Amino acid sequence: MNAAFGSAANPYSKTSNSVSVFLLRKYRKTSARAEVGIFVPRKRRDFVSQTQLLSFHGIPCTDPLVHEIVQRQSHKTNSSDACPKPSSSSFHPMFLEEAYERCKDICAEYAKTFYLGTQLMTEERKKAIWAIYVWCRRTDELVDGPNAVHLSSAVLDRWEERLDDIFNGRPYDMLDAALAHTVHKFPLDIKPFKDMIEGMRMDTRKNRYANFQELYLYCYYVAGTVGLMSVPVMGIAPESSLSTQTIYNAALYLGIGNQLTNILRDVGEDASRGRVYLPQDELAKFGLCDEDVFSRKVTEGWRELMKEQIRRARFFFDLAEEGANQLHKASRWPVWSSLMLYRMILDSIEDNDYDNLTKRAYVGRTKKLMALPAAYAKALSSPRATLPCQSC
């Protein structure tokens, strides 16, 4: 699903298991895992210039997309414009409890580490996050699940109609009911949900990306949107000094970084389906083409390409990491867990000598469990306002 929900096993697709969105430490290049970078100070209340920073890296600016979602969700927070409350018959307390329990079970099975991280959240928030996770997973499975062979544009159109029904208080089934209750309780806007469905449409009609600008937009649709869905539920720390827009940007960037990591992890698996997500112009830059991906031969050119791709993913994690501790304190742990474990996937690719064509980068259960206390310690930190800028 979406890279934004994070860490755990069974990434049911290119979009990862990643619900959240944020981040961890500044670091300089002292090894293959620490990137050369320049640190640009930031004004107290905002990132230096997100537009200049992203433009410097040749990244299309999605600020207008994020700004629209921030404005719409903020309006819901500050007004009585809530989604229609589902009928009492649909939301009998026992029915609703079972609906959330099912969402919990699905999250615990397919996103184990992230699920553990949600245990510190308030009861209301963790139920909402489970409901969002399940909807994202079901959306992703339309394209990458066992019945994907039967997928048509009509299926996605019907799924979007069901989404409209959810936001209008008319859930189709029990899992939809959990999300319908969530969007009534929290100031969630429908746009990032619709954008994710658009990302699924992209997957049905496009399996090559000419350049990173095209790939970035895809990553926004299938993974960056998860972060934008999650911020209203996770909440922003009262003591945060950053603007709401900045925190949403951080959510987006974690989703982008997670999705780029999924792509690198799954290169071999995607090749078997005839998909190549790596930018075509960057393959050519290192003397490579689709046939080199399909042949699964790890050459020096491939290793250099992978080093560049890993640098880019880490760049997005660095951009995003400031947002983690701007969230409500009880919501930070799953975000930090996601960030740290996705970084470990990149480390694993390096440990495999950049062979992600015949080997799948893997973070073992022991390493995952060992990362949880470190993520928890990060989650206890107070919000700060310094942003590393690195060249990727």
Task: Give an overview in words.
The chain is built from 16 helices and no strands. The chain has helices at 50-56, 63-78, 93-110, 112-117, 123-144, 153-167, 174-185, 191-205, 212-234, 244-265, 267-272, 280-285, 290-295, 300-320, 332-351, 365-379. Helix content is 59%, strand content 0%. The chain is mainly α. Residues 7-53 and 386-392 have low confidence and may be disordered.
Q: What distance separates the N and C termini?
A: 26 Å
What is the approximate shape? globular
Radius of gyration: 20 Å
Indicate the mean pLDDT: 81
Instruction: Give me the count of strands.
Output: 0
- Counting helices, strands and paired strands, the structural category is mainly alpha
Order of helices and strands: HHHHHHHHHHHHHHHH
Helix content: 55-70%
**Percent range for β-strand residues:** under 5%
Unreliable segments of 5+ consecutive residues: 7-53, 386-392
Give a quick account of the main beta sheet: strands, pairing sense, barrel closure.
none
The helix count comes to 16
Protein name: 15-cis-phytoene synthase
EC number: 2.5.1.32
Family: Belongs to the phytoene/squalene synthase family.
GO cellular component, one term: plastid
Show the helix and strand layout:
Elements: H1 50-56, H2 63-78, H3 93-110, H4 112-117, H5 123-144, H6 153-167, H7 174-185, H8 191-205, H9 212-234, H10 244-265, H11 267-272, H12 280-285, H13 290-295, H14 300-320, H15 332-351, H16 365-379
Helix pairs in contact: 2-10, 3-5, 3-7, 5-7, 5-8, 5-9, 6-7, 6-8, 8-9, 9-10, 10-14, 10-15, 14-15, 15-16
